[in-house]
Amino acid sequence: MITRTKFKDLFIIKNKSFNDKRGYFKELVRENRINKKFPFLVMSYSRKNVIRGLHLQTKDSQGKFVTVIKGKIFDVAVDLRKDSKTFGKSYTCVLSEKNSKSIFIPPGFAHGFQTLENENYIVYSCTRYRNKKSETSINFNDKYLAINWPIKKPIVSKKDKDAISFLDFNKNK
Question: DSSP letter at 85?
Fold first, then answer.
């Protein structure tokens, strides 16, 4: 089942899960349902309280289909498409192994998440390959974005601590 959001082209997918006494089998990505191709598949592992993001590529922007295969995350997508009605606004949701939800974040968004359980495995199916030269980060705690992260003392990489502000990102764009 696909649930549209107020953000153009950003949607939530409720994945089909087939459960029995052995465990479960889940459908994660069905390209024919969402009409997207994903040539690049990556995975991350994070322990509890980690924030990764807000990341984006300024050239060759990626769409991302994000799924939690173990754990639980507070997921954030920030619309950076200048011509969008929701420019500068954030969309947040909780993705987990238990709720079987995924999110498709279209190109032109910054993405980040905070981990909420001890072990968190996240899979990203991307519409483009990674372009390291065009990667940048916007500060996860930017006052303008006012994202209400659930855990107030997160574990953050140096790269993400040193990220630029939303206003500086817009000046350079």
Answer: T
Question: 163, 10, 169, 168: which is closest to 86 by C-alpha?
Answer: 10
Write down the pTM of the prediction.
0.90
Q: Given the residues 45, 55, 91, 144, select the one marked as catalytic.
A: 55
Let me know if 124 is a catalytic residue: yes
Retrieve residue 115's tokens.
């981990």
Catalytic residue, chosen from 24, 124, 129, 144, is 124
Long-range contacts of the stretch 83-87 (C-beta < 8 A, 24+) = 84/7, 84/8, 84/108, 85/8, 86/6, 86/7, 86/8
Per-residue pLDDT of the chain (173 residues; tens, 9 = 90+): 888 899 998 888 887 787 888 787 777 776 667 777 777 888 999 999 999 999 999 998 999 999 999 999 999 999 999 999 999 999 999 999 999 999 999 999 999 999 999 999 999 999 998 898 999 999 999 999 999 999 989 999 999 999 999 999 988 76
Amino acid at 38: F
- Structural domains of the chain ordered from first start: 2-172 (2.60.120.10)
Is 111 annotated in the active site?
no
